[in-house]
Fold this sequence. Notes:
By secondary structure, this protein is α+β, with helices and mostly antiparallel strands. It is built from 8 helices and 9 strands. It has a 9-stranded antiparallel beta sheet with strand order 1-2-3-4-9-8-5-7-6, with helices on both faces. The longest helix has 26 residues. The radius of gyration is 18 Å and the shape is globular. 29% of the residues are buried.
Amino acid sequence: MFDALKRMIGGSAAANGDTDQVLATWAKAEGHAFKRVKDKTGGGYVVETADGWRVEWGESQRPYIMGKELRFRCDTGMSSDVQMVMVSKTLAQALESDVFSRFTNAMQTQIDNTLPDEMRWLAMHQRVSLNASPGLAKRFMLLSNADAVASAWLDDGVLSALDDAASVWWTDTLVLVLTLNRGILTMRTAGQPLEPARLKLVGQLFARLASRLREQAKAAKHPKP
């Protein structure tokens, strides 16, 4: 299962090594708080930011991420029924292939509800146009059950930030999934190996995307007269 994804990430799931030091150093440089957390699976690390979003490192919560997982999370205040998922088309194809395989092998008549939400959304939700950025439209997919909200989220600042990421570090084969569900914006990627430069770039992108959603949520709750 997920053979295509395993080929994509290859041997990136290295030992924990100096993960705590990499995260701690990045957090200190950015002015964030760093702490270790413990749970039944051994725990991990959490970085809390003054802007209200956080970073979590620990056991993977998704079958398409092997080993450790790095999560950027933010409560945006958006309506809980708005759902979005953004991935590269290469990763989307791998995820869709796995969903199809599960569906046909089990001879199911409906999508497996044990699958992560974002995998089911690839089959359920409508694509949101990325035509404002030809580069993004060629390589990425954005799907949502609220086209107007998703389209409004793609303002000039968000498109510019996504374009920069796509041209510098968000490659076609990078296992990275961006979702909005129950008001929580989450960016998931492999947690090994961790690189200081990548942490900084991903953090900057996530902060911009989360800020825009918070702006939208605030405007929706307090519309101008």
